[in-house]
Amino acid sequence: MQRHAHATDSIQHQNQNQNQNERERLARDLLERAADAQGHERRRLIDEVVLLHLGLAESIARRYYRRGVERDDLLQVANLGLVNAAQRFDPGLGKDFVSFAVPTISGEVKRYFRDHGWAVRPPRRVQDLAAAVTAATAEVSQAKGTAPSPAEVAEHLGVSIDEVREADASHECFATASFDYRGDGGEETPLAETLGEEDDGYDRAEAVAALAPACHELKPRDRHILYLRFFKGWTQEEIGTELGVTQMQVSRLLARILGQLRARIGPAPVRR
Question: Which domains does the chain have, with CATH numbers?
């Protein structure tokens, strides 16, 4: 059964890569046609590219959640970065769109944090260099087709590697840690409860121990859905695209699967 599960995962991974390759080929075709088009037709083709990569923008925005800026604002800024990437991308350079779009979208989000999200404001020199590093990363990525190393960014800007690393580290100044912070998923033990108080980690370990055999009893497709949603962080829309179903169908599938797990594990113990 374990070999069968590995084979299933391998097939699913191959299907995922195939979907990504097809999406990239479609994006390149649209962008090449947009390069030769004007006016309304160009805008329509660019819009198709944007719609094709909304999941990419959301996944990048998700990295910056819980840093003191509203999620809706982050998603809007990430989508703006995606639009800018689609408008600026040059298919004549022969590189893939995603390699250019990722640093471009990330740059828009980081610039928004620079202007609106500082909790501890670094020197202006570091802020300006952080913006320059973001722009240089996008430029070098467009030329090379891969994300540049700190040394390559430093050479591009004519600064030292240490200065580039200092600029990158400044992105940690966007939000201060709270005693009530529970991790990105909201499930970790708050910092305040680790200071001589009861440790919730034992309850979490017991829950994981009970959940593992229940997950093994699920059908391979249901396990795959859980993996995409809770381990890879895919949206319901992305999962629907992968499975060839609608977002509403994915929502119902998740509700059914989680209901099965709750029934198998039983109610959570009441804490006294």
Answer: 18-173 (1.20.120), 200-265 (1.10.10.10)
